[in-house]
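forwarding from the other thread:

> can someone predict this with nicotinamide-adenine-dinucleotide?

sure thing
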Amino acid sequence: MSTSKKAARLLGRRNGPNRAGGMTVLVAGGAGFIGSHLCDRLVQRGHRVICVDNLYTGRLDNVRPLLNHPDFVFIEHDVRDRLVVAEPVERVYNLACAASPRHYQNDPIGTMNTCVVGAHNLLELAREKSARILQASTSEVYGDPEQHPQREDYVGHVNPIGPRACYDEGKRAAETLFFDYHRLYGLPIKVARIFNTYGPRMLENDGRVVSNFIVQALRNEPITIYGDGSQTRSFCYVDDLLFGLELLMESPLTVTGPCNLGNPQEVTICDIARLILAQTESASTLDFRPLPIDDPKRRRPVIDRALELLGWRPRAPLDAGLRATIGYFAMKLSAPEDGMRAAAKDTRDRPPRCTPRLAAATTSDSLVH
Ligand code: NAD
Ligand code: UDP
């Protein structure tokens, strides 16, 4: 069977006979960059979406067009606290965790607890609801890899006491919890190891390379290259990633992962700077700065497993994805609003907030799917 037919067949299952009107899907971290696109997509597909987020790095603006939709509910909640949901839930996506090194290192103990305690609370919820649960894990579980490219059976090379460890080890422990829930309770789990993903709705001051370079280029400010820029990453456009996440969630119960989801096109950090400078026609210069501690030197996913089990591979070319992302930031910079600030503080003390279920349209930045 061709890979695209396999993918279509997997997603077709979602419209199975026992699901009149779609499923109820809980998206933890649903107001963030990836999570908000996922909420859009799930609502568009006819599902009811419960978005749970503490707005640490997420923004209400990301889901504002959904707030009045009859099938969308926003709950301001920290996943480190137990979550009680009165209604049935069939799917849980756990995306709750700051993904940018700047933000996850800003509150390292909070990050570790979000990864571990947050995952535990969501696993308990999934168990109570007999729901499938997907963990947004990361290529960071491979650390600064000694094997290249990275396959899922590589167990990684992580420094457990460095500044990235709160995230890397937190995500590794979360994977452990997922597999123990699967072994002990037969809980249907899916673990996606996501590689660097970029696109519209990244935070302007996120510190991640794509958003940093684009904003710097658009402002004609120096492009901050850490180290000599020869380190590599493999960048996946958000639209491709979302399709992979959905396919993994709807794959047969025997498919647990871990499953790499990323774009195998590997580029150096200098390459990405050059591409962005060319597309923005920027006058920015290059500003070389020290490489952060434990910064991985190379990263590229082997995606054979995703291709074989899900029929998935990324389709958006880097230049097209960058063009869409540059367009987004150009628009944001010309009309800045509150949502562009980083949420770098702990929001646990805020009272919980729930949106009423009203009506509205959704947004789409889709390039390919
Ligand atoms: P993001 O920071 O934009 O989104 C994370 C969301 O989680 C935010 O809305 C944030 O407010 C929320 N959150 C953080 N801590 C929380 C808590 N304790 N309780 C409730 N909500 C909380 O990041 P993203 O890029 O959208 O990443 C989403 C997920 O994907 C993360 O789990 C991340 O680890 C994973 N991931 C992302 C990438 C990437 O390149 N973007 C790569 C690998 C893995
Ligand atoms: N990077 C850079 N300049 C920046 C931001 C990041 O050179 O302004 C480098 C960073 O050191 C790393 C790569 O780009 O080698 C990717 O960084 P990012 O924070 O986006 O993701 P991660 O390191 O988590 O893969």
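Confidence is low (pLDDT under 50) at residues 13-20, 338-365. thats all i got for now
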